[in-house]
Structures are given as structure tokens and as C-alpha cells.
Amino acid sequence: MSFDLTILGSNSALPTSNRYPTAQVLTVPGRFFLIDCGEGTQMQLRKNRISLLKIDHILISHTHGDHIFGLIGLISSMVLLGRKKDLHIFSHSELQKFIQFQLDFLYQQEAPFRLVFHPLSFKSPQIIYQDKKVSITSFPLKHRIATCGFIFQEIVKLPKLKKEKLEEYKIPIRDRQKIKEGSDFVLSDGKIIPNSELVIPANKPCSYAFCSDTAYHEEIIDTIRGTDLLYHEATFAEEHKILAGETFHSTGKQAATIAQKAGVKKLILGHFSARYKTSSIILEEAREIFPETYAVEDGNVYKITGEE
Amino acid sequence: MSFDLTILGSNSALPTSNRYPTAQVLTVPGRFFLIDCGEGTQMQLRKNRISLLKIDHILISHTHGDHIFGLIGLISSMVLLGRKKDLHIFSHSELQKFIQFQLDFLYQQEAPFRLVFHPLSFKSPQIIYQDKKVSITSFPLKHRIATCGFIFQEIVKLPKLKKEKLEEYKIPIRDRQKIKEGSDFVLSDGKIIPNSELVIPANKPCSYAFCSDTAYHEEIIDTIRGTDLLYHEATFAEEHKILAGETFHSTGKQAATIAQKAGVKKLILGHFSARYKTSSIILEEAREIFPETYAVEDGNVYKITGEE
Q1: What residue segments make up the domains of chain B, in order of their start?
Q2: Closest partner residue to A20 among B43, B66, B102, by Cβ?
Q3: ipTM of the modeled complex
Q4: How confident is the model at residue B308 (pLDDT cuts 50, 70, 90)?
């Protein structure tokens, strides 16, 4: 299995004409998770040909405007499109008031679908979602207001049994689950068939971690260790390192240090301040620490697999 | 003088990737009037190189989401950009609650500039703004909720006096204003110098009328009579005429009928339903009634002069 990540917005609070505020979609086969929802998200979804109605889960890192202003427009369009299914929103509990006030202002009656709010904890990592394919864990970041990152992890699959071996050794059904879980098989004459001969190993599970907005924060390292792809905000270049600290944002170099210490496979940077004409300074500084770093642009798509 | 109209968004409630919800900027030399403010307006302003901070007046036709969702993002960006000047918003009085709630949610302290709300009347045409160059009149439209159109009229200028005639006839200063206002001049020997010999006529004042959202509504005709440029919504094609009536919107043909009856010089159409792949059907139907009709696209700029 693989995840696909589509960048819908990559700028910080002040959007430009070609960099929208933060929003991303992580696609796990059959599931579309929207991560943050800055102004213009619904237009960016259309531009990237992702159906608004396929999104059933929205994760909001924090309630700063550039991460939430697109929600009311997206929800309103879902109403117009005739949505009936529940929409799940994982966020600070306060967000519900913000959205409900706007809905009450706009509509005389209840929305034709249910908004299910799931309040996040900002104290420690929590599994907030799990199905057969993926689990999502929220974890606290270090920002001016309560903020969470999210890590998406493919559910570990058991190896598959080799059909021809099942027949060759006449392995009874009652023993098969144990073999999937790693046991060897013992023949009636006492001969041991090693597990490795009986199974096709499962693909390595893939993982994606989203960290925005945050100051340099080493406490996240254990949670995101070994992640296939890490998105980390990099609002500032090193020349504005003090400003980064004061505003609880990171420089590219700080993001790269986190990536390096966590041993992730690949780092992507975004949430750039509108003061920089290009992201190249931030990217170059980050690559000095962690070469496998890239600067995202709106519309970029990243395929995430668990392979090296 | 001339007005410049920039179309920032031209779709109806469901935006597409290339047609944003309603927003326009009318530029009168030295003044930028934002008309409606759908989601993404601030990005469209940047794309069209119009400084956010130059906008001092925002006119909101009505409080449906596709005309107001861009306000909070625009105001937040003005805060970030260090705005100090008052920002004037002309709208239904209820809009103030909608905006103030969001500001209170987002900011711990007062905004660094004043939002001055000017409630509109939805009963009859009212002059809502006037300065040396332009006057703006709101007038009721016919929609599901209280909605206003706006007409911008250049202030009529007096003709200029011909310098050489002032000298030739030794016209005293005390008589000059009357001549500007149309009087002839009488010489000491009783000879009458006709006004037309003494003045250079002023350019014809220009005008722009904005009508969105509205059902076919003949009561607006007197207010917009003879306008140089009329923007009228045309959400639907004739095949959806019944739906247009039910939702209090117009077809292209109905917009054209209003234009023709009001004797405007040029008609532009917008607020197209997302159900049509192109605006061509709506445009063709409108041109059968009023040939001087055009369909707007995001980014279009129209120069409005009072000349034929």
C-alpha cells in the first residue's frame, strides 16, 4: 500500500497569488483525510480534482485563521452538493463554537448532514483514528496556542502464506494463523519447516507525519522516529531565527535538525513566510543538515511507500 | 475620468478552480471599492496586483456565504500587514455580528484599526457614499434574503472656462461661477456672449451598476437607466428558467431584458451556476435581446467612460 499526499496550500498566514494557506490531503486507498483547511481549500481541491464529497475526515492542527478559514466555505459547498454522510472534524474543542456560530448565521435549519467533532488532547500523543488500513496519532507541538501534529501509520499487515507450501506440507487451517504470526511448522516426522519458507513477507508499512505550526521542539522526535515522509513547517530562514523563536515557528535548519535526529527518510518544508520571494534560502540552509529535504509547492503530490 | 472594474470572482455559490465566488474591485482614481467578498478574494486581489491596504470601502450586497466568506481572511491579512486606517463596510446590519464573533474568537485584543459598519436600507435607493469624485447609491434587489445592488456615479463636473475668453471679455471673478453653471455673459454695451463660446464642456460622467443576486426585477430599471456598464447576475440558462424563479436568480435573457429596458450601454454577466461547463449558452441567449452583452471571467478588467 502507499499514501498519496497532495499539497493544497503551502504559505504561512499571508497567502500569495500562488501559495495558499495551509491545507493538504492525505489519500490512503479509499480514504481522503484533509489536514488543515486554510482559505481557498475548496478551490484547491477542485483544481487538484479531489471530490469535496469524498472527504469524511478533517484534521485541524490549531485554530489560527490560516488553518481554518476555508472550513465554512467547504462545509457550505458540501451542503449545496447534497452531502448526507457524517463529516468528522478532529480539532480543538473550541472550533465547534466557531463553526456552529457561522452555520447558525447562514442557515435557518440544521445542515442535512452531521458534523461530528472529536476534541484533540494537547498533552500527549493520542490515537485519534484507526481502521483496517491506517491509524492516526495526534501529538502536541509547541506553538503560541494549543497545536497538534498528526502521524499517519499504515496498519502492519501479516505476511501472506505461500499456497504451494500449504499444499506441499498439507498444513491444516488451524495452524495457518500462527504461521502468519511467525511460527515455524512441524511435520508429523518431527522435521521443522522454517517460517521463512512458508510466507511471503508483507510490504513495510508506510507513514507520514505533519508538523505545523511549531517552534523547534525535540519532544516530538520519539513520536515521528523513522517516518517515511515528514512535513515540518519552516516559516523562516536563519537570518530570522530570533523572530522564529518569538513567534513559535521554525527555521528550515531547525526543521532539518528534527528530521535528522528522528531519522526520517525524507523531509518536506512549507508554511513559508510571504517575506521571502522564493523558498530557496530556507531549503539550502535545511539541506546543510539533512540533504533529503524538499520545499513544497501548491499542487505537489508525494507518493509515500514504506520501501527504502 | 474613468472607472476601472476588475472581476475577482464570477461564479455562483459553488466555486470552480477557475471561477471564484463573487468579488469585484471598482477603481475610481485614488479609491478602491471592493464589491462583495467571496472566499479567496484576498488571493485574487494579489493575483491582480491590487494592494489589500488600498481598500478602504467594502460593499456587501447580501449575507449569503459566497459573498462574504472572504471577509475574515482579508481583515486578518490587513491586521498582519499593519493596517491603521479605518475600514468601512456597507452591508446588512447583521454582518457586523458575524464578523465581530470571528474577530473575538481569533484575537485576544482589539484589531489595530477600526471597522466602521454602515447598515444598508433594503426599502428604497439610498446614497450611501459621496466624495468629490463619486457617489454610490444602494438599491433593493429581489432575492431570497435582503439584497442590494449598487450604482457608482461620477460626480458631474462643471465645464471649464476658456482662459482666452476671460481675458478677451475681461470677465470679473464674481461672474465666473455663474458662467460655469451655464449663464451667458453680458458686456457693458449690452451684447450677449453665449455660454457655449465661454466654456469647454466637461466630459460626460461615467457610471457602473452592480446587480447580484436577484430575480428578474423591473423596479431597478429607473435607478440604473442609461448606465455605462451594468453587471447583472445570470446564474441560469433559459432551460432552467423555473429554477431561476424559485431561487430568486436570473437567466441571461432576463438580465438582457433589464439592460435593454434600462437603455444601458453595455451589459456584463456573471454569477454563473457551476452546472454549466461554459457561459456560452447563457451569453448567446442574452445577446438575442441585448447584443452588447459579455460574459465576465475572473481577472477581466473593464474601463468605464461616459463617452459613447
Answers
A1: 3-157+203-304, 160-200
A2: B43
A3: 0.92
A4: low
